[in-house]
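Troubleshooting: if your tokenizer reports a length mismatch, compare your output against this known-good record of 177 residues.
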Amino acid sequence: MSGNIDVTVENQLVRFVAPEPIDGNAVVEQLDGQRAGKMVIKALQRPRATLVIDPEGRITVHGTHRIEAARDAAKELLLRLGMADTGLKTELGPIIASFHFNTPMKVESIVGQLGAGEGHYDERLDCGIVSDKRHDLVLHIWGNGRCIVTEGRHPKMVAMAAVYWQSKFKELGIASF
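Known-good structure output:
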């Protein structure tokens, strides 16, 4: 049953902490960063990533799906600021992943079958949303079987959730696998 579900990591949220906090003002002045409230945003072309510097001087990298690419982006920022890239600590955040159930889904039925606490239908997005406490993630499921997972911690956990929900949806008659 699990052979037909391929999980793709779309984005890995990674935060880096340098030995010395990053000065957001220096990023704005020297590198044309953009201030957004207390945060500073800097888009890089190579490597392609968006960096957010928080008030504590930490770097959060968006737009990558590999940790190595995120680290390269953080190092690039440090080097452009004339700072050493040694001693950079990595903190992993949630991933955004996707997969396809390869069958139409009755997403409007999710709330009725699972109960309001676990699943609901989002009219604005036209998808069913499942808060999966078992795997500690959230699934957004569209009628064509496409699924986007947020708050995932590892691709293997997303794959386990996909197999579990495939079986559960078949059992409940939400999909015919």
